[in-house]
Specification:
Blueprint: H1 42-59, E1 66-71, H2 73-85, E2 91-95, H3 98-111, E3 116-120, E4 137-141, E5 143-144, E6 149-150, E7 165-168, E8 185-189, E9 200-205, H4 207-215, E10 229-230, E11 233-234, H5 249-264, H6 268-288, E12 292-294, E13 306-311, H7 314-317, H8 321-337, E14 354-357, H9 364-383
Parallel strand pairs: 2-3, 2-4, 4-7, 7-8
Antiparallel strand pairs: 1-9, 5-6, 8-9, 10-11, 12-13, 13-14
Helix pairs in contact: 1-5, 6-9, 8-9
């Protein structure tokens, strides 16, 4: 067994959602919240609009795209989009981890679309995106939060596509360059890359997506919180600060705080650089490791936010599957007990291993301080076997 490291991460929060708060955050950041005021009041709507406008500006979303705040986090946003727009033409769904698989299940088993095909890859891999049929609608996750596999670029998406591209991008926006001109529906949630407080989702629609909403009515009923049109026209108030349900003004304030912090450090380029530096630190460590490797098979698809690791030590690989899972959980539990890394176990549906959040709110110095602890914890678990 190796000796215990002496340096500890200043912030041990490496959860993949809710994610680490921005550096220096405290509840004092919410002091200017208008809690207790109506979200429909003039200052309430103005603060909500600040989140919409700030997100659009920071991310470089095209002027003719609309951005809104919707209920139920990223799940609510992507479900709202699928239930409101799918069915106008055939659908292809691409999945390579648990959340993508959930969208496959919802479209096939709940919407029960006849012309719907699913393209599913194992954890660590991407399905064949190059042969996607863009005469149909395409549904995918831009970054596989539970697999650590991302789409490296939007080059495979044609500009003259006939269908819409729906991209669940909750662990991608603010950390990766998003090809907005190639995407028609993009969703995310506050508790992911920016570490905001949860419960609300963001929905981005291209002009083509708006046209779909205004020209197509699905055959199934839509609950109130899913309705984006009225009388055949987009409810534009949703995209101008009039949310469908009552938002938390504390969560709104926290989202504003995160956007201001991002701008103060250099905006989107700096956020991306910070996240990529975190991945680079782990890549350098994995290169020297004799027991850990990335779950992502192709280095070009390695996520720089939800960084998933597998254990490749022959001793570990020789264990039965249930013992492998138990050992991986013991590593995460030991690091939690030591107070150096919280919530870094692999997602419950994913292969046994570790998952370290590397978004821009995480300091690279904390990642670097964590890595020797990974070696120590693995040595402790293996040595005790």
């Amino acid at each position: 067994m190796s000796s215990q490291p002496t340096q500890r991460p200043a912030c041990p929060n490496f959860s993949s959602g809710p994610c680490a708060k921005r550096p220096g955050w405290s509840v004092d950041a919410l002091a200017d919240s208008i809690a207790g005021r109506s979200h429909r009041s003039k200052p309430g709507k103005a603060r909500i609009q600040e989140v919409i406008d700030g997100s659009k500006a920071l991310l470089g979303i095209p002027d003719d795209y609309v951005v809104g705040i919707v209920p139920a986090s990223d799940t609510g946003a992507i479900e709202m989009a699928m239930w409101s727009m799918l069915g106008a033409r055939g659908v292809e769904i691409y999945a390579w981890e648990s959340f993508g698989a959930a969208w496959v299940s919802d479209v096939q088993k709940q919407l029960k679309l006849e012309d719907c095909s699913a393209h599913i890859a194992d954890y660590g891999l991407l399905p064949d995106l190059e042969n996607a049929d863009f005469s149909k609608d395409i549904v995918l996750t831009w970054n596989g939060t539970t697999s650590g596999v991302k789409i490296p670029s939007g080059d495979f998406i044609p500009a003259d596509r006939e269908g819409l591209v729906f991209a669940d991008s909750t662990s991608a926006v603010f950390a990766m360059d998003m090809p907005w001109d190639k995407l028609d529906v993009v969703t995310w949630s506050w508790q992911k890359v920016m570490g905001g407080e949860a419960a609300h989702g963001m929905l981005v629609l291209s002009p083509r997506a708006v046209e779909r909403l205004e020209s197509y009515t699905p055959s199934w009923p839509l609950p109130k919180i899913f309705r984006l049109t009225k009388g055949g026209k987009l409810i534009d108030g949703i995209f101008k600060g009039a949310t469908i349900n009552t938002p938390s003004m504390l969560a709104i304030e926290d989202a504003v705080d995160g956007l201001k912090w991002a701008e103060s450090i250099g905006g989107l380029p700096t956020l991306i650089q910070r996240s990529e530096a975190n991945l680079a630190a782990i890549e350098a460590w994995v290169e020297q490791s004799d027991w850990a490797d990335f779950l992502a098979v192709d280095p070009a698809t390695r996520s720089n936010t939800s960084i998933c690791l597998k254990i490749v030590d022959p001793w570990y690989q020789a264990l039965p599957a249930d013992e492998q899972a138990a050992k991986a959980k013991q590593i995460a539990s030991l690091l939690d007990t030591e107070g150096v890394a919280y919530d870094i176990g692999a997602y419950r549906d994913a292969p046994a291993g570790l998952r370290i959040w590397g978004g821009g709110t995480v300091e690279t110095s904390d990642i670097e301080a964590l890595l020797p602890w990974l070696d120590w914890a693995y040595g402790e678990i293996k040595g005790a076997a």
